[in-house]
Write a sequence for this structure.
């Protein structure tokens, strides 16, 4: 199934207002802290606005702090006045810095708490999502939402909160202060406003487009690198190194250009506004020199810097807000996914009475409404029977297993376990009674023993060893450094694929399931080991209902019932001898192993063509 079309990481949010309201609700439990941050940021900005006016008064009355002896040509500092004036000034600066620090510290706490809460929500959501979600959405996409998008919001949140409110306060505070001190000089300072604003908007528009192209090229380049390293053996096998290098170089050159130009244009904002400010400094110096004092001139220099600082942050803050809301939209897209159907209130929770008898009654299922797969399936499986399922790719073999496990919900009909609908069992109860060995092995980073205990935490060392002996992996484990305490890498890639599969078989044996499902469980081992494992599996399947999916038909000749599937329908049932005697599709499949003709492949091709 194709992955869902989730918004890319560099696009703008499609529903800005709706997502923004959702984000505000998520911060509702921290409104008191956010209000505290706003008050601190505004307080710091107000003190920052007040200090230039105080400095102006100090400079204009500087003569009051000194006593000049014209006879002896000496200057005496009036330390009480000097310290009181500059002490007050330094005190205001210190308090402003302290308030700013407190606001940043609190904002970091708010964002960290949001990050923690959101990751908990995402983890809880993932536990409730059906298998269809993971079949539809790439793992990397989901992982990116839970890490990169949450981090993006957390990392930028404090700058948004503090810079917006402090910037607004600095802008209007400086504007009012300049008008109060001297409106004539203020008019000169205001000349920088439209010029700076035009330059910033003009540069931000073009640099923003280039930044978007750069991030798009970066994502494409990372994808090519990951793809190349994952398939480097195939690339070397087909001598495609040159083609890969050319493709990489093309994307790399495009990314280099967009990066260079975007950084260049973005870097123009500061020198451009700096140039405009310098022109205003000259104008202020000229006008203030004519109509005012040196103290007023210096205070206006400081106010001009405070006045233009928020303008320089406009483009940056706008891009950050867009990025944060876009990340929020991706997060809510995940959190609003449809969850698994909830268990009935009175559902069966105990596995003790499960025997393993299955009945499929008029079962219909399809992954998409316009493409039917399983239609009107009827099947009876006695408890303790070994049922083999064969058929070409796309026939519905694995789908049948998924329906038994309730990874997917059937469209119509009923699947019964011991004459009770599987919907009347809790999913934990149903799945807890089933052991499953898949063709794709899954092992996590940890010791071999920890991986084996994943399905049965209460197993003893003796039971672990016995299960590994049954799976013919005990001897190999004993040869490893540390034996059962040998540390596996992620996915167990420091042992062979066949050995990984043997470990998963031992894990299934150790879980002591009442029902066993084997999906090509011996596909990655050699013929001799396969026979040994088959003997072990025959032993553990005794008394257990077992569903075995296999392409190598020699491994399922002893099955009590063989189900032959084709395009979602059961076309034949019976044991090995009965099906051969019918000389039907199964006989064709079986005989093809010796003749070299593969009717499965023929059937698969017809399915693909249709």
């Amino acid at each position: 199934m194709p992955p869902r079309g989730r918004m890319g990481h560099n696009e703008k949010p499609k529903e800005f207002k709706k997502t923004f309201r959702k984000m505000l609700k998520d911060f509702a439990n921290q409104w008191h802290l956010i209000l505290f941050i706003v008050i601190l940021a505004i307080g710091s900005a107000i003190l920052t606005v007040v200090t230039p006016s105080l400095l102006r008064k100090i400079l204009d009355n500087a003569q009051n702090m000194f006593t000049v002896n014209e006879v002896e040509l000496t200057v005496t500092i009036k330390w009480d006045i000097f310290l009181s004036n500059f002490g007050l000034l330094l005190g205001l600066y210190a308090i402003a810095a302290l308030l700013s620090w407190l606001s940043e510290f609190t904002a970091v706490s708010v964002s960290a708490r949001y990050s923690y809460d959101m990751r908990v929500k995402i983890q809880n959501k993932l536990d409730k999502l059906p298998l269809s979600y993971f079949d539809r959405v790439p793992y990397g996409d989901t992982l990116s939402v839970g890490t990169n998008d949450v981090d993006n919001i957390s990392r930028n949140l404090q700058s948004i909160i503090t810079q917006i409110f402090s910037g607004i306060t600095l802008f209007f505070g400086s504007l009012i202060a300049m008008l109060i001190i001297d409106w004539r000089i203020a008019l000169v300072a205001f000349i920088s406003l439209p010029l700076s604003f035009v330059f910033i908007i003009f540069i931000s528009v073009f640099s923003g487009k280039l930044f978007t192209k750069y991030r798009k090229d970066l994502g494409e380049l990372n994808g090519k690198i990951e793809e190349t390293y994952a398939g480097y053996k195939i690339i070397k096998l087909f001598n495609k190194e040159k083609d890969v290098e050319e493709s990489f170089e093309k994307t790399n050159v495009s990314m280099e250009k967009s990066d260079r130009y975007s950084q260049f244009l973005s870097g123009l904002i500061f020198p451009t506004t700096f140039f405009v400010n310098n022109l205003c400094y000259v104008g202020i110096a000229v006008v203030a020199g004519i109509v005012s004092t040196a103290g007023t001139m210096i205070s206006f220099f400081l106010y001009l810097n405070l006045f233009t600082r928020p303008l320089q942050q406009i483009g940056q803050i706008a891009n950050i807000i867009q990025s944060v809301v876009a990340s929020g939209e991706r997060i809510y897209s995940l959190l609003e996914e449809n969850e698994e159907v909830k268990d009935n209130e009175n559902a069966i929770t105990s596995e003790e009475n499960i025997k393993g008898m299955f009945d499929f009654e008029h079962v219909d299922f399809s992954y998409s409404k316009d493409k039917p797969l399983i239609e009107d399936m009827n099947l009876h499986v006695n408890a303790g029977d070994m049922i083999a399922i064969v058929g070409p790719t796309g026939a519905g073999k694995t789908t049948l297993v998924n329906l038994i496990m309730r990874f997917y919900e059937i469209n119509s009909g009923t699947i019964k376990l011991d004459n009770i609908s599987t919907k009347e069992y809790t999913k934990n109860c149903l799945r807890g009674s089933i052991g499953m060995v898949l063709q794709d092995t899954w092992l996590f980073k940890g010791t071999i023993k920890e991986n084996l205990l994943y399905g049965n935490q209460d197993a003893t060392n003796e039971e672990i060893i016995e299960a590994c002996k049954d799976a013919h992996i005990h001897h190999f484990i004993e040869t490893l450094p540390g034996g059962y305490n040998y540390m596996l890498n992620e996915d167990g890639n420091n042992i062979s694929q066949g050995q990984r599969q043997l470990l998963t078989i031992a894990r299934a044996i150790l879980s002591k399931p009442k029902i066993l499902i084997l999906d090509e469980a011996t596909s990655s081992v050699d013929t001799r080991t396969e026979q040994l494992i088959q003997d072990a599996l025959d032993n553990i399947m005794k008394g257990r209902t077992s569903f075995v999916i296999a392409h190598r038909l020699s491994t399922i000749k002893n099955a009590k019932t063989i189900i032959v599937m084709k395009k979602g329908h059961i076309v034949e049932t019976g044991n090995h001898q009965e099906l051969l005697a019918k000389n039907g599709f199964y006989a064709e499949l079986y005989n093809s192993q010796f003749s070299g003709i593969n009717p499965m492949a023929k059937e698969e091709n017809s399915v693909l063509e249709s």
